[in-house]
Amino acid sequence: MYFTSNTVAFLDGEFVPAEQAACGVYAQSLHYGYAVFEGIRSYNTPNGAQIFKAEEHYERLHYSCKSVGLPLEYSVEELTRISYEVLDRNNLTDAYIRPLVYAATPNMSLKVATTSNVLIAVWEWGKYLGDQLLRLSVSPYQRPNPKAVPIEAKVSGHYVNSIIASSEAKGRGYDEALLLDMNGYVAEGPGANFFFERNGELFTAPAGSILRGITRNTIIDLAREAGITVHEQFFTPDELRTASAAFMTGTAAEVIGVASVDDVTFDTPFQQTIGGMLASHYHALVTGQTATRAASFAKQQ
User: Which residues face 245 on adjacent strands?
Assistant: First the structure.
């Protein structure tokens, strides 16, 4: 699914066959989840392959490295250039890009690394959560306490929490989990941010126990440009009973509607919601299409 015998990846300064990219079993990152990564998408636009918000993603990668003490010698510009070359070597335009910074040196101590390794891999990947509206369930697992880990950093080890929560929800017949923070407020999904709509306005969790996703921030900007009020505030699952619609956002998931959260059902057709309109405008933005959706949408509100 992710690579073939012809796939090329970037690893520590070289372009190598992906099947030969390996990590030793004594690597500190393998044992402790001590690594950081990004999820980035490239789209086929009228101007060819264009990586959406490469600068923002690689700036966050640098922030994540700094947060956990992983050195990163490549600049944002170098990482962007390399990413385009990996795309070109694999003849891909619409693709998912996975940069990973990790510590491969054999090390069983709990000390920060003095050197790091850099992998950039690409593959074709559809929307992570599919195209159908999602049935969510509030998870019995909480998001990590922000006083315990740098929650704004995209750290590999954090995603053990995501795997557990997502698997638990799917085991009960739902499509995905919705996690609360340590105070019982709605935070986000295992790999996507959450929004709900009420009275023509949008609500989403503030900074604190969430990863402020780049897709999330883009959707907020698009909404505000269209004259939509966006509230970044704490809210409980009970407040969703007054919502008319909901959706999730993420680089892998893009923008996807939510059908229900446990026994709370959103009956408005997604195409008629703010989320549906923004999903259309987001698609036009990332694919480089000329669109006036924001202006026309604002007139409808």
Answer: 197
Strand-pair partners of 228: none
Spatial distance between the Cα atoms of 54 and 112, rounded to a whole number of angstroms:
27
Fold agreement (8-123, 134-300)? no
pLDDT digits (tens, 9 = 90+) for 223-260: 999 999 999 999 999 999 999 999 999 999 999 999 99
- What residues have CB less than 8 Å from 244, skipping those under 6 apart? 197, 198, 199, 266, 268, 273
**Considering only CA atoms, which of 159, 155, 232 is closest in space to residue 189?**
159
User: Do residues 2 and 92 make contact, with C-beta atoms less than 8 angstroms apart?
Assistant: no
Residue 226: count other Cβ atoms within 10 Å of its Cβ. Answer: 20
Q: How far apart are CA 206 and CA 183, in angstroms?
A: 13
Domain 134-300: CATH class, spelled out: alpha beta
Instruction: Give the CA radius of gyration of the chain.
Output: 20
Whether 299 is catalytic is no
Domains of the chain, residue spans: 8-123, 134-300
Q: Which residue, 260, 273, 6, is CA-closest to 123? A: 6
Find out if CATH 3.30.470.10 is the number for domain 8-123. Answer: yes
Residue of 66, 127, 154, 170 marked active site:
154
* pTM of the complete model: 0.94
